[in-house]
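quick one before i forget lol
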Amino acid sequence: MTYKDPSELPVRLDELGTDWLTSAFRESGVLRDSKISSIEIEPIGQGEGFVGVVARLRLGYADGTTRGPATVIAKLPTPVGENRMMGELMGVYWREIFFYRELAHKLPIRTPGLYYAALTEDPMRIKQFKLVAILDRMPGFLVDKVMAFAKKSMKESAQRYALVIEDLA
């Protein structure tokens, strides 16, 4: 797993700039000396994502030729605090990155290729498993009260995740 400094990962789609994506693609070996000169961001599935924001990125390259993919799919966590909290509590972002990094290429079915995946270190990760185990044993009415309290008391998450995969469309 690649852990990054939080300042190195975008939080919103409009932060997926040419310099950031060029650097990410060079780090992962997708690009060597070519540079991305333009990105057209097309949000997909707007209003449908529970825990994430998904967009198709149409890429232009500085040398005028396509030295990397023409389009990719970028996935970032949702900006909706309550949904994000649930996604982090369930380990959704970590699991998806882990799936593409460690498992997808071993499956006998076609999955999108991985271009880039990174996340920030999470000191709460181990505690999350314990918390979920406790919540699983609670009666529903009590879980609702605990979650309502957690939503009110939690601040914006410092966790960052970024996933860029092959566009199969």
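fyi The CA atoms of residues 89 and 127 lie 10 Å apart.
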